[in-house]
């Protein structure tokens, strides 16, 4: 079974990073792995101020 492709934008990636830095998640076993995978993937929107669009829409 293949894994689904998950597409996140820059804002979501930043939020995930902030959440994983909180003490409540310090014991999360896969914290480093998640941070590495989120940081290594190209995100849908290059601009931080991009508005939310549907998954299939590209910034214009």
Please characterize this protein's 3D structure.
The chain is mainly alpha-helical and 60 residues long. Residues 46-51 have low confidence and may be disordered. The chain has a domain at 10-40. The protein has two helices and no strands. The chain has helices spanning 10-21, 31-40. 37% of the residues lie in helices and 0% in strands.
Briefly characterize the structure.
This protein has 60 residues and is mostly helical.
List the helices and strands and how they pair.
Layout: H1 10-21, H2 31-40
Helix pairs in contact: 1-2
Largest sheet: none
Question: Structural class of the helices, strands and pairings?
Answer: mainly alpha
- Beta percentage is under 5%
Total strand segments: 0
| Helical content (DSSP H or I, runs of 4+) | 25-40%
Categorize the overall geometry. globular
Mean pLDDT: 73
Measure the end-to-end span.
35 Å
Order of helices and strands: HH
Number of helices: 2
Poorly predicted regions are 46-51
Radius of gyration: 13 Å
């Amino acid at each position: 079974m293949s894994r689904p492709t998950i597409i996140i934008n820059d804002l979501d990636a930043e939020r995930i990073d902030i959440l994983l830095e909180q003490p409540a998640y310090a014991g999360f076993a896969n914290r480093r792995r998640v941070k590495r995978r989120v940081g290594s993937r190209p995100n849908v929107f290059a601009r931080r101020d991009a508005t939310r669009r549907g998954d299939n829409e590209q910034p214009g």
